[in-house]
Amino acid sequence: MKLASKVGEGRRDAAKAPVPEEADTNPVNAPREGRTSFSLSSTMESVSEVEAAADKMAEEAGLDEDERFRIGMAVREAAVNAVLHGNEYDPGKQINVSLENTGSSLVISIADQGKGLDPDSIPDPLAPENLLRGTGRGIFLIRSFMDEVHFRQLHPGTELTMVKHLAPVAEKS
C-alpha cells in the first residue's frame, strides 16, 4: 500500500480514533489552560491518535471547523514525518507528543527518535522541479497552517513545535 493511500485512510479514520488513554487521565481544561503529554509507537494508527487529540484540544478551545481542519492537517503531517521519516517505522522507537492550551495559544510538539532533520535542507515544494513530486509538501503545509513553527535537534531525533495563536474572546465573531 502506498503512503499516500495510508495517509488518506488514516485521515478518514482520525475523527473516530480514540484519544490516547494517557490524554484522558490529564485532559486539557476546556476552554482554558491545560497540558497533556504522551508517547506512542511509530505506526500510522498513532498518527490518527495524535490528530484526534489535537482536534479535541482545538474544539475545546472554541476554534471553528475550518481552523480545526488546518490544525489537524498540520499535526497529521508532523506526526507522519516523525513516524515515517524520523523513526522510519522502527517499532523500538516512539513519538513523544505534547499538547498545551496556554489560554492565548495552542502549542503542539511532536518529537521523534530518528537521525535528526535539518529543515533548511528540505527542497522547496513550489520550485518547478518539485511541483509534480508526490511527496515533500508536509513542512510547507505545516508552515502555512500554523502561526509559528520551530525545529529543535534532540540528538537523537527532532522536535517540531507548532503554535496557533487564539484570538481574544472580544475578537471572535
Chain-averaged pLDDT:
83
Order of helices and strands: HHEHHEEHEE
Taking the alpha carbons of the first and last residues, their distance comes to: 44 Å
For the record, the CATH class is Alpha Beta
CATH homologous superfamily title: Histidine kinase-like ATPase, C-terminal domain
Ranges with pLDDT <50 over ≥5 residues? 1-12, 20-30
Class by SSE composition: alpha+beta
Shape: globular
Strand order of the largest sheet: 1-2-3-5-4
CATH architecture descriptor text: 2-Layer Sandwich
Name its key features.
173 residues, alpha+beta, Heat Shock Protein 90, 5 helices, globular
Protein described:
The N terminus is likely disordered. It is globular, with a radius of gyration of 16 Å. Helices cover 37% and strands 21% of the residues. The relative contact order is 0.16. The protein has 173 residues and is an alpha+beta fold. It contains 5 helices and 5 strands. α1 packs parallel to α3, α3 runs antiparallel to α4 and α4 packs antiparallel against α5. The chain has a 5-stranded antiparallel sheet with strand order 1-2-3-5-4, covered by helices on one side. It has a single domain, classed as 2-Layer Sandwich (Heat Shock Protein 90), CATH 3.30.565.10.
